[in-house]
Amino acid sequence: MLNYRNELDKMPSYDGVEKSYRIKVNANESTMNLPPLVEERVINRLALLAFNRYPNEEYYSLVEQIAKNFSVDTSQVLLGSGSSEIIEKVFHAFGGAGHKVVYPQPSFSMYKIYAKAADAEGVPFNLDEKFNLNVDEFIKKIREVNASLAVVCNPNNPTGNALTPAQIEKIAASIECAFLLDEAYVEFYGRSAVNLVKNYSNLIVARTFSKAYGMAGARVGYMIAQPEVTRMINRTFMPYHMNVLTLAAADIVYQMRDEFVPRLQMIIAERKRMSERLKKIRDVEVFPSEANFILIRLARAEELKNYLESLDIGIRYFSPNAFGLKNCLRISIGTRIENDEVFSAIKYFLEGGQ
Ligand SMILES: Cc1ncc(COP(=O)(O)O)c(C=O)c1O
Questions:
Q1: pLDDT band at 12 (very low <50, low <70, confident <90, very high)
Q2: How far away, in angstroms, is 83 Cα from ligand 1 center?
Q3: Residue 10 within any structural domain of the chain
Q4: Which residues on adjacent β-strands are paired with residue 181?
Q5: Do residues 221 and 100 share a domain?
Q6: Is residue 298 domain-shared with residue 219, that is, in the same domain?
Q7: Is the pLDDT reported for residue 14 higher than 80?
Q8: Which of 47, 69, 137, 169 is 20 to 30 A from 226 via CA?
Q9: Does 10 score more than 90 pLDDT?
Q10: How confident is the model at residue 166 (pLDDT cuts 50, 70, 90)?
Q11: Shared domain check, 214 and 338
């Protein structure tokens, strides 16, 4: 018999099994590929790559751009294969036997898995029934269990609501342990806490190219923290863990990030339009969102998910065991045409005589 690592077969797995749909609004991706002008520049750049060399130059070119944009030193920026890799390494750096990681629930389901993978103890902290975080109680919990890492996703996935920068600052200022702020959706909110990093040596901000820049397939994320923190977290990475194709593509995308502004504005406007329309449907509870998705609750959630699937529309349904998410569905915001079709199907299912 093969002698696997202890407890490997007990590792919880990520339940977001991916299928393709005609309208795919289940994974908070961008439903649009790169803007044509950006795509053209990326392809031209890829044609010039030195595949035979390790990707040093490409790594530092992107780090320099990000550091310049946030007015931080290049020693404060690390890149990852998606923000997933960043988050995993942060858990690894502050995990280990006897270490505790506190995170709200419901939130990004991977935090629990990363805690386990890092041999740390995950300590979930319950959001209230409207999915608000009681900041004072959260701080109390972090202190009480003597956590080595606290995590907040802002705006929160899958609920969509957000803490204010003042609330984030209060947490950073009130705890002594590391504080990972996952800003995967922050571009749809517009209130990042990166500027707090200079004042708080425990604050680590993780960001991604997967959502606002529509690069989920390329796998690019980054983190910003004080130099001593990045120096330590960097020890957990393999050398050359980012590939040259991804780095070169992300370098162009970041140079051309202004091209994405109209899309961000469109998604924010569509989020508002969808929320308002959904609120008018009987018996649908719509939660406020600052992200590129909306969470709703309704009694016939599972049936509705199945009906939409029969139309080849994929939205996210949560298992009844997922804390606080019973009868909830999460719908990512797509183009106006996609949103109209999703909305009409929901309305027809709930009010159109089904
Ligand atoms: C809150 C949150 N953090 C991090 C990630 C990871 O994204 P990526 O690895 O594509 O950057 C996701 C993906 O859905 C997410 O929802």
A1: confident
A2: 6
A3: no
A4: 152, 205
A5: yes
A6: no
A7: no
A8: 137
A9: no
A10: very high
A11: no
Residue 5 inside a domain? The answer is: no
Can you tell me which atom of ligand 1 is nearest the CA of 107? Answer: 1
Both 103 and 238 in a single domain? Answer: yes
CA distance linking residue 65 with residue 31, whole number of Å: 26
Of 255, 275, 302, the position where a domain reaches its end is: 255
Residue range(s) defining the domain that contains residue 130: 36-255
CA distance 176 to 126: 21
- Ligand 1: lining residues by beta carbon, under 6 Å: 28, 82-84, 108, 153, 157, 182, 184, 208, 210, 216, 221
Identify the DSSP state of 299. T
In ligand 1, which atom is closest to the CA atom of 16? Answer: 14
pLDDT digits (tens, 9 = 90+) for 114-142: 999 999 999 999 999 999 999 999 999 99
Residues 6+ apart with CB under 8 A from 47: none
Atom of ligand 1 nearest to the CA of 209: 11
Where residue 130 sits, what CATH number does that domain have? 3.40.640.10
Give the total number of structural domains in the chain.
2
CATH classification of the domain holding 320:
3.90.1150.10
- Classify residue 4: in a domain, yes or no: no
Query: Is residue 9 in some structural domain?
Result: no
Give the distance (Å) from ligand 1 centre to CA of residue 353: 38
Mean pLDDT of 162-190: 98
Phi/psi region, residue 327 (left: phi>0; alpha: psi -120 to 50; beta: rest), is: left
Tokens matching residue 13: 């797995």
**Residue 164 pLDDT exceeds 60:** yes
DSSP letter assigned to residue 196: G
Quote the ligand 1 centre to 158 CA distance (angstroms). 11
Put simply, whether the predicted model's pTM sits higher than 0.85 gets the answer yes
Sign of CA dihedral 213, 87, 84, 124: negative
Given the CA of residue 108, which atom of ligand 1 is nearest to it? 1
Residue nearest to atom 6 of ligand 1 (CA): 84
Q: What b-and-e string marks burial along 35-69, b requiring 16 or more CB atoms within 10 Å of the CB?
A: beebeebbeebeeeeeeeeebeebbebbbebbbee
